Amino acid sequence: MKAFWTIGLLILSNSFMVIAWYGHLKFAEWKWFNKLGLIAIVLISWGIALFEYLFQVPANRIGFSGNGGPFSLIQLKVIQEVITLVVFALFTLVVFKTETFRLNHVISFIFLILAVYFMFKK
Prior knowledge:
Blueprint lengths: L1 H26 L3 H4 L3 H26 L9 H24 L6 H18 L2
């Protein structure tokens, strides 16, 4: 159950992270947003990133084996990185619609899945 909660919280966390880091590139299409200066955009991104931390910190605390969770610190990091890339790929394809998913992307995802497999192999 802790593994489920950890992965679910990491997905939520990374969803907010991707919006904070890259959402402003899409939000620039809105006239009012385009008038904002860089400092205002950074502050808005920080506000969104706060939600990233509200999910990331509990995910790591729940999932870390030192706190009774199922994952080592290295395993948590690899899981988080894979989730980050999957969430980013989906965000890019759905929100921007200018990116294309090519064979080299599929191959790189296969290698990421293999990285997770080898991370958990004893």
